[in-house]
Design a protein that fits this description.
Length: 438
Amino acid sequence: MTVESITQPEVRTEPCAARPADVVKARPSVRRRLRRGFYHAAIRTMMFGYTLTLALARTLRRPPGRVAAGQKQTILLTGRFEADNWARAHLQPLAAAKNCERLFVVSTYPVPEMPNVTPIYPSRWMIKWFGATQARLLVFCAWAIRHRPHVIGGFHLLVNGLASILLARAIRTRSMYFCVGGPVEALDGGIRGEPGPFASMETRDAYVERCLLNALRNCQLIITMGTRAKEFFRERDVMSECHVVAGGIDGARFSTPSSGRDIDIVFVGRLAEIKQVDILLRAIAILRSQRTIRAAIVGDGPLRGSLESLASELGISADVRFTGRQADVAAWLRRSKVFVLTSRSEGLSLALMEAMTCGVPAVVPDVGDLGDLVRHGCNGFLASDHRPETFAGYLEELLSDEDRLRSCSRAALESMKPYAPADVARRWDAILAGEAES
């Protein structure tokens, strides 16, 4: 198959989420409650059908046998690979593993050229008639049924992971799920994840959560970005083989600069509700009253317009540059002093890993798997809450003390040594050979 069309998925456009301290919660409108009820009913019905089908496949189809020692394996994956760096970090070490014969990737975004990686793209007419996600999953299923790879898997549980688990059981091959978003992909029924049908339920659904966890119990191999996600699954009796593989970062591409750093604060990510970039803007406004600040917001997304408006309202438009999506993120990181995330939830952020590879210490919330990499007071700070004042305090502590900043920068570089692509590839070798401890 050839690349005929690359389309962008539809996204919800919403204003910045207000902080709980700023507003009194209003009773949802009748229309909104009806909308919630519709999505709860629809998702429950879908998950009931999925669970029933999975149980039927489990009854009729025996699980796949173990791969013979030393056997090279073909692997088929699918996901949204919107950023080249993200794709390289996760795909390149896996493709470089000695036990990987070939890695095939189904995507509607261009997959960067990598050794031993073959991209597969839906045709233009499929995307036009079915939509980007549906076309991608149809091609993924058709290719898996036709070629029967040793392993099939998906990034994110909703819906790539669910499709991989069911399809793998149906064709008697191994399933693999990459939990890149952390526990929120299953917690409360997936309502806290990226915008989509599950998030549209808005309120917790215990039945949907149970169905999602049941699906994960039928997955042969779960890959998490950090230890907290793995602990979350174990606490909920998901005893599938589970390994922590955060991805590999090529230090040569993110080397430290020879010149000085002229950007005080940098954020890299999608400008979406879950990232809560408005908290960062309010923290910058607090700092701006005490010192000169130069900040860069690297990325794009549905909230860019409202965030730019908020920056204007706070009087910091001249201090904050919205760069939009950048092909060379490393160039911005190498110019920066402190990296910041204010996300409601994260796995182990790839942007954070890239920043620390550039020797940029971080100020991030203590959520998801971020604590696996950021050691409080050593290579950055972990904020215990999401108040702008908390982030402003930690930023001031770093920016006002050059010696502390240099010390944290050196510690950040040291922290990234275990994430070299060659080391991650060896980790994948052990996993594929069944020799890694889960």
